[in-house]
Write a structure and sequence with these properties.
Number of helices: 12
CATH class of the largest domain: Alpha Beta
Number of domains: 2
Cofactor: Mg(2+)
Largest sheet: 8 strands, parallel, barrel
Order of helices and strands: EHEHEHEHEHHEHHEHEHHEEH
Shape: globular
Strand content: 15-25%
Structural class: alpha/beta
CATH superfamily of the largest domain: Phosphoenolpyruvate-binding domains
Number of strands: 10
Domain HpcH/HpaI aldolase/citrate lyase: 8-231
Binding site for Mg(2+): 131, 158
CATH topology of the largest domain: TIM Barrel
Mean pLDDT: 95
CATH architecture of the largest domain: Alpha-Beta Barrel
GO molecular function, one term: lyase activity
Distance between the termini: 12 Å
Protein name: Citrate lyase subunit beta / citryl-CoA lyase
Bound molecules: (3S)-citryl-Coenzyme A, magnesium ion
Amino acid sequence: MLKERLRRTVMYAAGNNPGLLQNAAIYGADSVIFDVEDSVAVSEKDSARELVYHALKKLKFPCEIGVRINHISTPWGYDDLEYLLPAKPDYIRLPKGESGEEIKDIDNIITKVEEQQGFEPGSIKIMVSIESPKGLRNAYEIASASPRMIAIAIGGEDFAASLKTEKTKGNIFTGGRELFVARSMIVFAAREAGIQAIDSVFSDLRDEETLINEVMLVKELGFDGKSCVNPRQIDLIHQVFTPSEKEIDYAQRVLAVFEEAQAKNSGVIALNGKMIDMPMVIRAERVLANARAAGVYQKEGI
Ligand SMILES: CC(C)(COP(=O)(O)OP(=O)(O)OC[C@H]1O[C@@H](n2cnc3c(N)ncnc32)[C@H](O)[C@@H]1OP(=O)(O)O)[C@@H](O)C(=O)NCCC(=O)NCCSC(=O)C[C@@](O)(CC(=O)O)C(=O)O
Ligand SMILES: [Mg+2]
């Protein structure tokens, strides 16, 4: 069984657009974020907050729904929490996270609201976007600041802006070099804290080929999923993060030969001329758990 919920795609919907809020969850994303931060103009912050509150209270959704609040250092952050937590989002996405203290502060506020509202303690989770060098330096502190933490993400556009460069497109050879170190460090912090790592959005909706290359790169780096901005990006991202038939077949064979080896009291065996030992077994188990969670593999055990 996969310990965490599958989050191959985490799709944003602007909080001031009622049509997007109503439909965002029907396109098959694993997770959806109603945004009251950067997709909402300052003049619309109050009305977006109200729309998101009513959407959460009145609509039923087929996937988990998070809310991206404004940072708590802005004039709107604490009001976002006070107004939106009673509508019980599945999680709060804090943008531009920079320290563990911020997460502890938010955790305490959530705890009080859960008590007041009679929600199950610990049921509202936290996901944090790292969007600056300071946030990156404190990535592990942030990732481990609360048992509510489910994932850290990179906000690539803001991160590149804070480096005084731009987010380029493509893989490590053709672009995307400016985020390479930050992406890896975010995966390291997430893994050390035992939570998920989510990559940034890809803004060019027409360029499907480069999107797929970018998803292949971040999957290789260890990310569990990717933020996105448009329904037509969902299947392309899922295609890369969902184990293929070939990967499933190989994982099954790895587990089968390893079982054989263990029956012979050995911790190592060859499959098609390649050594198979414990790290390959762990990877194979993860491939099958992901495949089961994605609904493309039903068998329990091997
Ligand atoms: C980009 C565009 C305007 C294009 O619109 P278009 O209308 O041209 O798109 P079309 O494809 O024509 O739409 C076809 C049909 O799908 C519907 N539809 C489209 N998008 C939908 C959606 N998201 N949810 C539900 N429904 C959707 C649409 O309503 C239509 O429905 P219908 O009319 O019924 O046919 C639109 O997608 C959109 O607004 N995206 C969300 C933008 C957003 O939230 N940005 C903030 C988060 S990033 C950020 O902040 C950076 C970051 O912080 C990130 C990090 O932290 O990772 C960092 O620093 O990097
Ligand atoms: Mg951002």
